[in-house]
Amino acid sequence: MTKRIGRQTVAFSKPVVIRAAASTVGKKEGEGPLGQYFDEIAEDSMMGEDSWEKAESCFVAENMALVLKKAGLTHEDIQYVLCGDLLNQCMGTTFGIKDLPIPFLGLFGACSTMGEAMSVGAMLIDGGFAEYVLGGASSHFCAAEKQFRFPLPLGIQRPQSATRTVTGDGAVVLAKEGEGPQITMVTTGKIIDMGITDAQNMGAAMAPAAVDLLLAHFQETGRTPQDYDVIVTGDLGYVGHQLVVELMAKEGYDMSENYTDCGILIFDRETQDTHSGGSGCACSAVTFCGYFYPKLCSGEINRMLFIPTGALLSADSAVLGLTIPAVAHGVVIESGKGSCT
């Protein structure tokens, strides 16, 4: 039986296998430090479409097809598809998967969506409701800027605390049986709101949610940061990463040795002018699928704590002057035996 550990953490009775992972990114992401690890790099971030939103749907459609191919499966093998994005009504996802005849559960966790998809998918499989689940998350820099900040043609100067939304899609196939890295636990986060209202400083808004998740995970499991080869948050960037280190130190946890952030890894802020780093649903999704998944497959990483983070604002909440609530979801992944795709 599945074992609930405390209020927020679940340990699976049998680990859920990540059978395959795939990542498709935009040109700028492909030019960054992780470029060699991504499956596909689009030369045209418009994907031949006439809008950024349609382009994002193309990233979704192409990457979903790719991960199914890598898993050696077809849509008929999949019981559920769980995914989401940043756009209104998750339209990037909707139009990207609408031709897949698979039962669909749309998710919105902002930039924590990949962690939500992996968590819920693993629960569905562990509960006996599915043998295969397709999960993923996407975002597009231009579409997100238009919706949440300013249209790009205005040329608004961004502060150094700002992050750049990653263009791309990351997807995984979760399985009941087989070879590959294994999800052994999930810790589901709570909404944390520290009163931040600056949409150009997402790291400060989301860092407290990551800290709350980390504290819950360590307290409920009895583990410490040193029990993991790597702990990775989703898109806090340089500002949020430093806040997590400082806040966790006040709680008695040393995060200085094995903690990093996908938003720091995906871009070179000195040569790519990305300020505090990367963000967006695709930031954690493509970084996990492209960079960390192979390291779990090879055994270079034996156990990681993956924590996608999300700022739960909307275009309306920003205009109304509301604060920016945030959430984080933790997924414990351990290196599985055998080959990976």
Using brief descriptors, characterize the structure shown:
single chain; 341 residues; alpha/beta; Peroxisomal Thiolase, Chain A, domain 1; 2 domains; twelve-stranded mixed beta sheet; two-stranded parallel ribbon; 11 helices; globular; SpoVAD_sf; Thiolase-like; acyltransferase activity; Stage V sporulation protein AD
Describe this structure in words.
This protein has 341 residues and is α/β, with parallel strands linked by helices. Helices cover 35% and strands 23% of the residues. Strands 1, 2, 3, 4, 5, 6, 8, 9, 10, 11, 13 and 16 form a twelve-stranded mixed beta sheet that branches. Strands 7-12 form a two-stranded parallel ribbon. A two-stranded antiparallel sheet has the order 14-15. Helix 6 runs parallel beside helix 7. The two termini are 29 Å apart.
Short characterization:
By secondary structure, this protein is of the alpha/beta class.
List the helices and strands and how they pair.
Layout: E1 3-5, E2 9-25, H1 27-30, E3 40-41, H2 52-71, E4 80-84, H3 91-97, E5 104-106, H4 113-126, E6 132-139, H5 141-148, E7 164-165, E8 168-175, E9 182-187, H6 202-221, E10 230-233, H7 237-250, E11 259-261, H8 262-265, H9 269-272, E12 278-279, H10 281-298, E13 303-307, E14 309-311, H11 315-319, E15 326-328, E16 330-334
Parallel strand pairs: 2-3, 4-5, 4-6, 7-12, 10-11, 10-13
Antiparallel strand pairs: 1-2, 2-8, 2-9, 6-8, 9-16, 13-16, 14-15
GO molecular function: acyltransferase activity
Pfam families: SpoVAD
InterPro entries: SpoVAD, SpoVAD_sf, Thiolase-like
